[in-house]
């Protein structure tokens, strides 16, 4: 658990100021489950940063591309389901708040040669919601680039207001997809956990409205 605290500290400046000053945490995670090629059992942890963000830490979200690297390694995915509750409030994800998107940040380490691109895409929805809406954000990182990174995912959907939970919260489904592409088969690249903390971290911004 201690290995996640540094990353949480580094990401705090990106939380909306009003919520960052709120030290009361009345939102709660009731349950978490996940599956995918980038998240074998026991390799993902979920926590709440005050009421302002959901922080996911992945131990083996790692993609690689290059000569003699199996083709399957260039794609990784993980679907994380987190049941978040906060009585008397509805939760908004990937939406505009005060003219700015209450967005998602990803943090880790990479080594990309020129001609290699890394794409991280996330699709959000609430399981069982009556409107069945989803929202998408992504980012593309172009090589050459090496070392630690902290990137914000941009909202690429027409639903600029994001998605909203039922009153009291709900089961948020986060479908993460990591992909590496290259212009030819002789160049290499990798993206994954930070070398210092041995985790790949995703921080999903949350905003709340009384209901």
UniProtKB/TrEMBL annotation:
It comes from the Eukaryota. The keyword Lipid metabolism does not apply. Residues 1-20 form the signal peptide. Keywords: Signal. It comes from Clohesyomyces aquaticus. InterPro entries: DUF4360. The keyword Signal applies. This is Secreted protein. PANTHER family: PSEUDOURIDINE SYNTHASE RSUA_RLUA-LIKE DOMAIN-CONTAINING PROTEIN, PTHR38847.
